[in-house]
Every structure is written in C-alpha cells, then in structure tokens.
C-alpha cells in the first residue's frame, strides 16, 4: 500500500491480491454512476455519514476492461482510519458486476475541503442530535483548557456576567463535574430542585445568570464525587435534557480540563456548541491547550478564539511584570487560525471576588481585569451573534473579519458595545 503525503500528493494504493476478483468476461463494466451509488454504502465511522455525501470521493473512472480508479480524499495525512476506509471503498466497488480490479488513489484534503467536510458533518449532527432543553437558537460557548490551573472557571463566570451586562439572557453550566467551583465563585449556596409539575430541574439564579452545577446538588462543597466516565457523561446529559433553561441567548459551559468523556459527549449532544480556549502566556500551557484545539477539530467544533489569562501583573507603578512569560496566547491563536479575544491581566480583585462570590465582571465601572472581560464579551458576541441578529452572509463576514484581525480590535469592540 502506498503512503500518503502530508502535502496531499497523489500516491496510489492498489488492491491486495486476496481482494482481486474475477468476473465473467461477458459482463460489461459498470458505469461511473453505478460506482458512485455503490460508494454511498461506505461510511466514515468517525463522522457517521457516507463518503460520497461528505465529499471524500474526488473522482471515479471506469475503463472498458473493468478497472475502476477511485480518488479518495482523507481529512489528514495521518488519518488512523485510512486502512478501514480504503478497504471499505475497494470492497464496495468490487461488489459490482463487471469490475475486474479497483485502484484507490488517496490524497490529503486541502484546508478548504476539510472546512467543507466539517460543515457537512456538523449539519448532519444537527439533524440527528437528540433533543435537549437547550434551544437550537441558543448560542453555546464551551470554555475549555488543556489543563487545570489556568483560571478557566474564573474566566467562565466573568465572561458569562460580561455577556449578560450587554443585555443578553445567559445561562452558566458547570460541566466540570468533579472539580466544580462555579457555586463558590458566584456565591450560590442554595440547592437546586425539580419542579413538581414539569419534573425539570430549576436552575439557581445568581448575578442575573441561570446556573447549574453538581455543587448545587451534593450535600457540601467538600463532598468528593467518585464517578467514572459514564457517570460524568450522564450528568452532562441530565444538565442538558432535564434542566429548564428557558429562553437563553447564550449558554456558557465551564468545561473540565483536558479532552475526555465530557468533551466528546458535548460535541455529540450539542452540535451547535462553539469553543473558546483558555491558556496562560507560558509555552507549556500553550502547547497543552493545542490539544483542545485538536480535539475540537476532530469533533468538528468551531473555535471562536483564544483567551490569554494571567497575562501580566501591573504593580501600580507603571511597570507590568510578565510572571508567566509573554506571547503564548497570540502564538496559540495564530497556530490554530483564530483571533486572540483578550489578554486578561493578573488582578487581585479576581481572586477576592471569587472568594466572596462577587465576580470582578460585576464591577461598575469596569477596571483592570473587569475591563478585559467586558471587551472580551463585546468581541465574542460580534463573532458569535445572537440568533435573532444573524444572517448567513453576516455571520460569514463577521467570522472572516475576526480571523483576519487575529487579536482584539478596540474599534470593533467599541462598535459592538450597546449604546
């Protein structure tokens, strides 16, 4: 079997001897249309759709003597499912009467082809996604990180409040099932319960947000949750299917760190979800956060942008100390082709506000980190506008503009803020 070039150069892959088939010499070769139809039976096991509708079959050529040549485009050069998809493609074509042999020429997709495929895959996921209590028109923002300790939960809380401050209805879901911290950061101590009539869980209310967390179900903050992966996914499913979220413009989800069961379950149950990645400036954090971007790509989840947290400490005398280095957030944003939404500075008020349940984003007027969260929210709602304000062409234009900037444009942020 031939190799696959990362540059997408054509490398042929021919049948194994055991997979050749002999046919009656009197049988006529099939038409290319018949081969295309047969290949609809080849399913990409990762994407759950056939390779024809996904655009993975680039060409079909049938010679008079029954030799079928198929162009197969895979998403990446190192696709782990290559052998399976090639084998299935070959066998489907060989099943047609009149086929003497099958040649599969495999290439790597271009960036444009991958984008088109992901769009089709996400559309398919939307069509077959199980219903949840989250409206299809609700914008879902998954705040993710490659590892713990980068301030992801603080960012989730303050980002949600900053979006609410722009006049939108916002929910906040704590999907960090084991490491929940949202209740403390918001100062919520009440337990959540189900409505007697609807049997749906009623979210807690805090700082104008609808909030759900496992920390609002268990007896105390110190209780350890010793759940395995299946239980974690079930908890997420309950938060999505059995919580009365109502009519939300945005749902911010505080994701657990890493790329585990929760992340995979979310992409399956909420195909409209989009991701922001939180990192610190240091190179080690940036490299770990890149794994989240890779997971998003494999799950066909768009990445809205990168947030660099703990960016620098202003000592108050005109000097900024970069305790974790510089540039990691911008480097990550550049490497994955998304804008840097904000650099959030070190600010003792973030810590103090989290400890006493008064998040810094609730300050009026905003200063320091609170100002960074306000700017971040304004840019985010421009890149991911509420459904009522969106058109297809408008959405595309805004995303292209955001990608071109690859950073925080003060004029754009100012124009997005409410008057």
Spatially, the strands of the biggest sheet line up as: 9-10-8-11-7-12-13-16
The value of Rg in angstroms is 25 Å
CATH homologous superfamily of the largest domain? P-loop containing nucleotide triphosphate hydrolases
Helices, by number, come to 13
Question: Which key terms come to mind for this protein?
Answer:
alpha/beta, GMP Synthetase, Chain A, domain 3, Rossmann fold, eight-stranded mixed beta sheet, four-stranded mixed beta sheet, 13 helices, elongated, disordered N terminus
What does this structure look like?
The protein is an alpha/beta fold. It folds into 2 domains: 11-123, GMP Synthetase, Chain A, domain 3 (2-Layer Sandwich), CATH 3.30.300.130; 133-416, Rossmann fold (3-Layer(aba) Sandwich). It contains 13 helices and 16 strands. It has helices at 32-39, 82-94, 111-128, 152-165, 182-186, 229-241, 261-269, 283-298, 328-336, 348-356, 369-383, 392-405, 410-416, and strands at 11-14, 43-44, 49-50, 57-62, 67-74, 101-108, 139-144, 170-174, 204-206, 209-212, 250-254, 274-279, 303-308, 313-314, 320-321, 340-343. The strands form 4 sheets. It has an 8-stranded mixed sheet with strand order 9-10-8-11-7-12-13-16, sandwiched between helices. Strands 1-6-5-4 form a 4-stranded mixed sheet, covered by helices on one side. Helix 6 packs parallel to helix 7 (261-269) and helix 11 packs across helix 13 (410-416). The protein is elongated and about 80 Å long. Mean pLDDT is 80; it is low at 1-26, 391-398 and 405-419.
